[in-house]
Each structure stands twice: as C-alpha cells, then as structure tokens.
Amino acid sequence: MSVQETFKTNRDRNEANRSRLDAERVRITEMRARDEALRARDEALRARDEAERARDEVLRAVQAVRAENEALAKRLRETEAQLRALGVDPRPS
C-alpha cells in the first residue's frame, strides 16, 4: 500500500510541477510579447518624432523661401518705382 501511495504522491507532485512550469512558460511568453509590443510602440513613436522634425524643417524652409520671395518682390517694386521716377518704363511692351 505504501508503494502505491508513494507513486500517487509522486504523480500528484509531478502534475503540480508541470502545471507550475506551464504557468511560468505562459507568463514568460506574455512578458516577451508585452516587451515586443513596447519596443514596437517606442519605435513607432521615434519614427513619428522624426517625421515631425522633418515636417518642421520643411515648414521652416518654406517660410524662408516665402520671406525671400517677399523681399525680392519688395525690392522689385522699389526698383520699378525708382525707374519710373527717372522716366523709364520698367515694363516695356
């Protein structure tokens, strides 16, 4: 009888250990999946930040070009006014 009890106890203990190990494997798998999701999110955030920086740089370049165009247009108007003051038609036909 004691041999049967020992086998049953060992079998029960082994089952408990297998269940515990299975639960640990599941927990580790979930942690790895969560870590991978966090890494992917961080990468997406870095990409978004880089895209925003690039967009801001393009906007600054566009603003600089517009300012330069406005300055050139003003200078052209001033030059045309000076030519008219001298009696020269700045836009001949």
Q: Which percent range describes the beta-strand content?
A: under 5%
> What share of residues is helical?
over 70%
**Biggest sheet details:** none
The residue-averaged pLDDT reads: 93
Counting DSSP E segments of at least 2 residues, the number of strands comes to 0
Radius of gyration: 39 Å
DSSP summary: helix tally? 1
Shape: rod-shaped
Structural class by sheet pairing and helices: mainly alpha
Amino- and carboxy-terminal Cα gap: 122 Å
Low-confidence stretches: none
H/E element sequence: H
Written account of the structure:
It is a single chain. This protein is mainly alpha-helical and 93 residues long. Helices cover 90% and strands 0% of the residues. It contains 1 helix and no strands.
